[in-house]
Amino acid sequence: QVQLVESGGGLVQPGGSVRLSCAASGSISSINVMAWDRQPPGKQRELVATISTSTGSTNYANSVKGRFTISRDNDKNTVYLQMNSLSPKDTAVYYCNAARGVFRFWGQGTQVTVSS
Q1: CB 106 within 8 A of CB 97
Q2: Residue in 40, 12, 1, 36 with CA at minimum distance from that of residue 22
Q3: pLDDT tens, position by position, for the chain (116 residues)?
Q4: Could you tell me the CA-to-CA distances from 36 to 13, 116 in Å, in that order?
Q5: Rounded CA gap, 87 and 45, in Å?
Q6: Alpha carbons 67 and 30: distance in angstroms, whole number
Q7: CB contact at 8 A, 35 and 47
């Protein structure tokens, strides 16, 4: 199996920045895509950003373009989500996930709260 452990969440002021980390372990050699999703309170989970593990190409939701950056350190088997210019609308549980063939693996989630 694949295990994903997220870290870096917490409380941040509007306009501030947070970097989330996702460390992958287990059977990770065949993972094709890593991604971050988020679930705001009372809303459905939504895709935030993706990155190809082979090419490094990235995609972002329109709501975070220009503010969030997804990156990967292959040597450390870690994916990051740098979040800048945060607003209360970004408050959510953020989930790291990985795709391997038809399977998708999820982290436990980390809470990010943007509030003054």
Answers
A1: yes
A2: 36
A3: 899 999 999 999 999 999 999 999 998 888 989 999 999 999 999 999 999 988 999 999 999 999 999 999 988 899 999 999 999 999 999 999 999 888 899 999 999 999 99
A4: 21, 25
A5: 18
A6: 30
A7: yes
